[in-house]
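Narrative of accomplishments. A recurring question from our advisory board has been how the design workflow behaves on a single, concrete structure rather than in aggregate. To address it, we present the structure tokens for one chain from the evaluation set, followed by the sequence designed for it. No filtering or post-editing was applied between the two.
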């Protein structure tokens, strides 16, 4: 099963992708995580991407598409049952490149799941987000605190990090980029009957349950094929 999680910054794409990865043996491919790894390693791509990401703008399509192609290539022939794209595509040219890539490999795309969240809630979610410095487990100051204060639930590490693009000014730019460049993908995927809509304002477990309903083939609160 191959999926796309679509939604604005802070909608919960990464949170839900990690849960789906475990439950369905899918492989999460997050272009944001890939770019941050390039930045950390100081590669040519990382050097080009860092300033763009810090401004909250989108990294050029050509860089993203070639990076993604290598990942999809790597996902074929592995033991995973498919992939979840988290943060890709983000522009119509990226979606067209993905269609061509999947057609060349005869790989289907099963669902495009949109997590709908109000802009005001997104700012609160992003400004409260932090991750374990060792294993990358995600937390939130209000919505998902570690069970023991200052201790990662997964690996016991006491060190946490916050993303440099999670500040109010950059979040505004990221939201603007989403509405201008990524939202046009909603009619694109509605037109080919793949779009399913989930209420991303609900609590995390409820969002997960809505996604599971979509994956089970029951349309429940999701959108019927062909509907926006
Ligand atoms: P990227 O890393 O993809 O960031 P993003 O899309 O802005 O999304 P986020 O990771 O911020 O949010 P999320 O939806 O994953 O939410 P999360 O689950 O963490 O991209 C970063 C940058 O890289 C871009 O700005 C761009 O420059 C570049 N880039 C990446 N891909 C690109 C592409 N394809 N083309 C061009 N440029 C690209 O949740 C957020 C917080 O909310 C967490 O703390 C979580 O605990 C909490 N939370 C989650 N769900 C809920 C819930 N239901 N209720 C309450 N809290 C919740």
């Amino acid at each position: 099963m191959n999926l796309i999680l679509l939604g604005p910054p802070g909608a919960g794409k990464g949170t839900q992708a990690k849960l789906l990865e475990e439950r369905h043996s899918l492989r999460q491919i997050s272009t944001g995580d890939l770019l941050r790894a390039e930045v950390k390693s100081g590669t040519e791509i990382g050097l080009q991407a860092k300033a763009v990401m810090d401004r909250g703008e989108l990294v050029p399509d050509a860089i993203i598409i070639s990076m993604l192609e290598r990942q999809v290539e790597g996902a074929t022939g592995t033991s995973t049952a498919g992939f979840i794209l988290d943060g890709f595509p983000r522009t119509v040219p990226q979606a067209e490149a993905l269609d061509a890539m999947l057609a060349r490999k005869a790989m289907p795309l099963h669902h495009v799941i949109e997590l709908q969240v109000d802009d005001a809630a997104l700012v609160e979610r992003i400004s409260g987000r932090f991750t374990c410095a060792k294993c990358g487990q995600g937390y939130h100051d209000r919505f998902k605190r570690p069970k023991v204060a200052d201790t990662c639930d997964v690996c016991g590490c006491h060190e946490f990090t916050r993303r440099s693009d999670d500040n109010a000014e950059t979040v505004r730019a990221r939201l603007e980029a989403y509405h201008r460049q990524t939202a046009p993908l909603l009619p694109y995927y509605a037109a080919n009957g793949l779009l399913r809509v989930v209420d991303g304002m609900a609590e995390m477990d409820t969002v997960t349950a809505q996604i599971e309903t979509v994956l089970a083939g029951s349309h429940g609160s999701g959108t019927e094929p062909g509907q926006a």
